[in-house]
Amino acid sequence: MNAKRQHASTAAKTKLFVLDTNVLMHDPNCLYRFEEHDIYIPIQTLEELDSHKKGMSEVARNARQASRMMDEIVSSLPEAIDTGIPLTEPSRELATGRLFLQTEAIPLTLPVNVPTAKADNQILAVVHHLATKQSKRPVILVSKDINMRIKARAMGLEAQDYFNDKVLEDTDLLYTGVRELPADFWDAHGKGMESWKENGRTFYRLRGPLCAEMVVNEFVYQEGERPLYALVREKTGPTVVLETLIDFSHQKNNVWGITARNREQNFALNLLMNPEVDFVSLLGQAGTGKTLLTLAASLTQVLETKRYSEIIMTRITVPVGEDIGFLPGTEEEKMAPWMGALEDNLDVLNGNAEEGGHYGGEWGRAATRDLIRTRIKIKSLNFMRGRTFINKFLIIDEAQNLTPKQMKTLITRAGPGTKVVCLGNIAQIDTPYLTEGSSGLTYVVDRFKGWKHSGHITLQRGERSRLADWAGEVL
């Protein structure tokens, strides 16, 4: 009796979350993400999971994984379905709540105008029934579907988005990879400073309050009479070692005929050309030069310095307009319509190489293009599982459309000697249910921050044309 009374008082403190199908299909591990609170799965959610389980898409895989996890939980204590199955053991103490499955027929009592045949409305009826029955504790619907949440609130029910996959609440707080030093920086941090030269670079060892906030591979700069552009090479507590950069804005340091047009592009080229940096992420609006800089750096390191054996370029195939149906041809040919950005940038790079006097005339340009073609492989994301890329330069374009799980699948393909570069603009997400806070690109920028073999830059200034810049501002 005491145990029952204790369980009742605990239940009063905890919340009951009713899960919509799209939450399970978005993150199958969500069953273990609600800590001490209880989870309720309506029969309709299980039905929808069942109807989505066939196929090879990410959604189908997640549906199957969610079903397997539920099977594991239920088979651990099948007799406790009515009273709720404790999640402590199956989740290895990540969650301490209980999992409830719908075991009774619930009357579909909804306002007259709401059609009960729709799956979403049947789940709402379950939430309504539980809220009435368990009035002593909050019953909350968790759904990634905005319309479902609006309907729930219109009926006086509590509803929330699934927040657990969000890396940041506010994307303005996302790490930019760049820090401007205050005017009095050297006065406050110059005491006991050491400086030395090595391989044509200058190094400074400093300590002070601002140094403690810096991150390894973060760029710091100071404009003025004696401008400083440097990279945080090492950090131990309040002490940092700053290393000056190669000036890629100067023609003598051009990369495949390309020079940096602004400060951030110079920082990006320092990361892209650095063999010690295995993972680079570049964020920025359209026209900031993400793809052009990356291709220039990759071609230089594949064809000139022979650091990598080939370039592999991939992107998620989410159409902005209507889909154009099935495409004929090989994997490369099918991916060609998605790779317009690659073609446009190669035209620019070929033009640059010719102007620089690398190759002679029309024949030279055609020969260069054929050589480049043999070294760039275009791959579809769908065939990435199980691959290992050794000594490759892997470019993931439009990375904002990837989920954190897809991003993990891609980056873990990297074998020895491979460099991975993620490009994207989190303001242009085309994938349903992904937001700026839960995009795979936001996730990797946040998780890789401070690792000594990774770097990130948010490119600020558009360099495409005055028309594109003005359109970006006013439209």
Automatic annotation (TrEMBL):
The keyword ATP-binding applies. GO terms for molecular function: ATP binding. In the N-terminal section; belongs to the PINc/VapC protein family. Residues 15-150 form the PIN domain. SUPFAM superfamilies: P-loop containing nucleoside triphosphate hydrolases, PIN domain-like. GO terms for cellular component: cytosol. InterPro entries: P-loop_NTPase, PhoH, PhoH2-like, PIN-like_dom_sf, PIN_dom. This is PhoH-like ATPase. Keywords: ATP-binding, Nucleotide-binding. It holds the Pfam family PhoH. CDD domains: PIN_VapC_PhoHL-ATPase. The keyword ATP-binding applies. Coiled coil: none annotated.
